[in-house]
Specification:
Helices cover 51% and strands 23% of the residues. It contains three helices and seven strands, in the order H-H-H-E-E-E-E-E-E-E. The protein is rod-shaped, with a radius of gyration of 43 Å.
């Protein structure tokens, strides 16, 4: 029992020395008791501030993560929109005239070529029983469509 008491006292002395370093007098003398109490209170306040700081930091990280996720979703949506506008595909069929087929976004020529409607210009020439449709695109050479007139 005495040995257990000595071990407990030894642990307490070691703890006190680790908490209030300096001389033995600084650690145990009553003259320094008020300073030790102030140091203990300052350490307690520091722990509370550090806990509050850690909580605020976690909240900020959570908000940043949430905002970053929303931003990435918006960017992905806008990229899909840009891709859809840059490469709209043919779209729905709108009309046919001879072998030419007009789609929502392109004109399919009788030769099987596709001319995007964006930036497409057209000129029409007519003869007695034929029409000639000249199509000009920024990225293609002019396309000539010969259409017979309807009876």
């Amino acid at each position: 029992m005495l040995l257990l008491l000595m071990v407990v006292v030894g642990i307490w002395v070691f703890w006190q020395r680790s908490q209030f370093p300096g001389t033995w007098e600084h650690t145990f003398h009553v003259r320094y008791a008020e300073l030790r109490d102030r140091l203990s209170q300052a350490r307690k306040t520091l722990r509370e501030v550090e806990k509050e700081l850690a909580r605020a930091y976690r909240e900020a990280e959570s908000k940043v993560s949430s905002i970053r996720g929303e931003h990435e979703q918006r960017v992905a949506l806008l990229k899909r929109e840009v891709e859809r506008h840059q490469n709209p595909g043919r779209g729905e069929e709108r009309a046919r005239l001879g072998n030419a087929v007009l789609y929502e976004h392109v004109l399919l020529t009788p030769k099987g070529g596709e001319l995007p409607l964006d930036g497409l210009r057209a000129e029409v020439s007519s003869g007695v029983d034929q029409f000639w449709l000249y199509l000009y695109s920024d990225s293609h050479s002019p396309e000539l469509l010969t259409l017979t007139s309807l009876p």
